[in-house]
Design goal:
By secondary structure, the protein is mainly α. Among the domains are: 36 residues, no CATH class; 55 residues. It is built from six helices and four strands. The strands form two sheets. It has a two-stranded antiparallel ribbon.
């Protein structure tokens, strides 16, 4: 356990013995820095683009909940959805590009698209209703079950 690895060279030496950890790193009391001879040559040859790709691959990607974007019912597209909900929301068909975009937009993103406050609330309200099962243009309320 208290032996020095042969394939590594040390920058600074101390009198405290080196300890090999399970993660194959070398540690001392003074945190002696260790250089591997193989890595020195490879680090200089790495391209900037490779480093960027490596950093990008480590970023956590958002996982979309399947209930966040519901399937289309009755052949409704994002354009027809905006027409059916009313209040002149059909004017903004060209600003919203896809079905997925319609169901993932937040208020601030709609504000950047220069959609008025009342229409933003109306669109986001109908998006939530559609997730719950309502269909625009087919009546605004589900019929409640009568108690007998």
């Amino acid at each position: 356990m208290l032996r020095r690895p042969l394939h590594q060279t040390l920058r600074h030496t101390t009198h405290i013995p080196l300890i090999r950890t399970p993660s194959t790193q070398i540690r001392t009391f003074y945190q002696t820095s260790v250089l591997r001879e193989e890595e020195e040559g490879e680090a200089e040859e790495e391209d900037i683009e490779v480093k960027k790709q490596r950093l990008i691959s480590k970023i956590n990607k958002p996982v979309l909940n399947p209930f966040l974007i519901p399937r289309r019912r009755r052949g409704i597209t994002h354009e027809s959805f905006l027409d059916l909900i009313g209040k002149n929301c059909g004017e903004h068909k060209d600003k919203i590009k896809s079905w997925e975009q319609l169901f993932t937009f937040k208020t601030k993103q709609l504000k950047k698209l220069e959609i008025s406050c009342q229409q933003r609330k109306w669109i986001l309200g109908w998006v939530q209703k559609y997730r719950q099962g309502y269909t625009p243009g087919m009546g605004t309320h589900k019929t409640p079950k009568l108690k007998e």
